[in-house]
Design goal:
- By secondary structure, the protein is mainly α.
- It has one domain (about 1-355).
- It has helices at about 1-25, 30-50, 60-75, 100-125, 130-150, 155-175, 175-195, 200-210, 220-230, 255-290, 295-320, 335-355, and strands at about 80-85, 90-95, 100.
- A three-stranded antiparallel sheet has the order 1-2-3, covered by helices on one side.
- A hairpin with a 4-residue loop joins strand 2 (about 90-95) and strand 3 (about 100).
- Helix 1 (about 1-25) packs antiparallel against helix 2.
- The longest helix has about 35 residues, at about 255-290.
- The chain starts with a helix and ends in a 26-residue tail after the last helix.
Length: about 375
Amino acid sequence: MKFATTVLVFCVAALLALGAVMLCSSPDGSTRFLHQMMWVGLGVIACGLAALYDYRKLKRISWLIFAASLVLLAAVFLPKIGLKINGAHRWIDLHFVSFQPSELAKLALIIILAHYIDHFGRQMSVLYKPAIVKGLLWPGLIILAVLGLIFKEPDYGTMLLLAAVSSMMLITGGTRIRLLLPIAIIGLAAVGYSIKHNQNRSGRIDAYLHPEKHLEGKAFQQYQAKIALGSGGVIGVGLGDGRQKYGYVPENHTDFIFAIVGEELGLVATLGVVLAFLGIAICGIYISSHACDRFGMMLGCGITFLISLQAFINIGVVTGALPNKGLPLPFVSYGGSSVLMMLTGIGLLLNVARHAHEPVRRERGFNPFNPREVQSTQVS
């Protein structure tokens, strides 16, 4: 366990350091660097507190955290409180700084689902009525409350990310795939219908399918990002010597920072980023599989799924493997709310690892990480 936590901390620290270096090399980098370092400092403090606070006590306040996240998600639509930028209501204006409630909602949803699965886990996997009610209906309403508000902002990328993370948590917790499958199909059909009737987002899909038709429009970012990645070669053109960040790749310090990493530091650095996220995923799964209780296991799984899947989507968008959708690269992209919440999540994961060897009472049930293992009842 010590090795897993050491690798986890090293990977996160390396990604944070890379993000800081890339911000320094970007236009107006000094201002952004100082602002980001303020949030990183707050994030490190939050990470330390989350690692020291017994994560099992979160069950007492999980509903309070969830309710607070819903209130903040709704507050983005209030005048003089919410900020509307580029047609989207995603931020709360705190006068001296802005905050994105959907970042808090990611952790809040993971915590409440982990608590729910911990309480109703045995009833979620049976064959009869409880599987539908406990394994699908009630958690579905919890998830829908968050996704509905995020959809209204609108923020399709975060909505789909949380839908995927929630589904993975429910499957890991015992919900049968055949129950989730119809809901997933209906949900994807609804999202597809919404995209079809939204000119901006339908344009992004068409640009993804036919990029040659939109090189000066919707496909501009991804096309220029590919040029940046290709220009970097194996070792890059040199730190600070990249050209694509000067008006060619929009959002080069946030959603498309991976392209600038590839241009200036080359394939070596981009592979290093991928390996760092792979290391976080492996360590997160290892820590979760050795948690001392079901709540810790599900909490660790949710955080690991969130970080890994968000990184996968971001890199997929930048390389052109996925349609363009704005999601920051965890720990690397510029953005205070994101780095604060992601570091808090890492702190919770370290907390799960810290209590992993404590003997506690476990429910008898299926362990998804080891199908042959049936957990025995132990009393400390």
